[in-house]
Amino acid sequence: MGNIILIKPAKVDLGELRWTCNEDLAVDDLLSFFAENTGGTVYKAARRLNMPFSTAYAKFQKALRRGLLEKYEGKVRLTARGALYCLCKGCAPPQYPLVQLKTRWDTSAPLWQVGALAQVVLAALRKLGMSLYLAPIEKLCTTSSMLLLVSGRSSILRLSEILEIPERIFTAALPLFAEGLYRIGLAWDTGDHYIIGNSIVVCKAPCLGVCRLQKELEDFRKKLEEFMTAPP
């Protein structure tokens, strides 16, 4: 490994985060119901919103075509795109769409990390000129791959500058970004840290107490040497 660059994520409050996008389908009221009611139905949404069923169903079809909602086991739920759309439009208190985004990405990361990565992702879509409706963000691994595309040949640490995002927000998002890279074999999980490339080490959470990085790196080097010297 080269000279280690250790990144310690900043813990942010949800109130510090800003989620913006240009998409507007006029389905905010319907999405607000599904943000707060996981596994609801269009019929229940129409009743709760005091909306004619035909109107609710038309909005459902519109959101379905754009990939904001999906049918699942006879019910309806937000997709990752739908959760991001809700964050942008303020359809519901942010913790609701963030919980659903966390579920779609299948991660145990805290909501503030999910929210920070959501802000980075939306900034990346604006940089790429890509519609939220077409974004490859339904899985965490494809989301991280897309961010690599934005960084190009630059270090991923320049993404904060490239996307014009406060460094504090970007570092808060890095552990979850690294988790996505790990899922496609582009990062290593050493326990309390992720290693990206040959020099970037990302703490999974703000370090509290004793940091185990030194021992983790020693164990990682041993495993790497064993792998390199193993017979074919």
- Counting DSSP E segments of at least 2 residues, the number of strands comes to 6
Strand % is: 5-15%
Rounded average pLDDT: 90
Estimate the global geometry from the Cα principal axes: elongated
How would you classify the helix and strand content by structural class? Answer: alpha+beta
Ends distance: 23 Å
Organism: Thermoproteus tenax (strain ATCC 35583 / DSM 2078 / JCM 9277 / NBRC 100435 / Kra 1)
Protein name: Transcriptional regulator containing HTH domain
Structural write-up:
The structure is a single chain. This protein has 2 domains: 1-18 and 94-232, no CATH class; 20-92, Winged helix-like DNA-binding domain superfamily/Winged helix DNA-binding domain (Arc Repressor Mutant, subunit A, Orthogonal Bundle). It has 10 helices and 6 strands, in the order E-H-H-H-E-E-H-H-H-H-H-H-E-E-E-H. The chain has helices spanning 28-36, 42-48, 53-65, 80-89, 95-104, 111-128, 140-151, 159-162, 167-183, 213-229, and strands at residues 5-7, 69-72, 75-78, 187-189, 193-196, 200-203. Strand 2 and strand 3 form a beta hairpin. The longest helix is centred in the middle third of the chain and has 18 residues, at 111-128. It is elongated.
Chain-wise SSE layout:
Layout: E1 5-7, H1 28-36, H2 42-48, H3 53-65, E2 69-72, E3 75-78, H4 80-89, H5 95-104, H6 111-128, H7 140-151, H8 159-162, H9 167-183, E4 187-189, E5 193-196, E6 200-203, H10 213-229
Parallel strand pairs: 1-6
Antiparallel strand pairs: 2-3, 4-5, 5-6
Helix pairs in contact: 1-4, 2-3, 4-5, 6-7, 6-9, 7-9
Protein name: Transcriptional regulator containing HTH domain
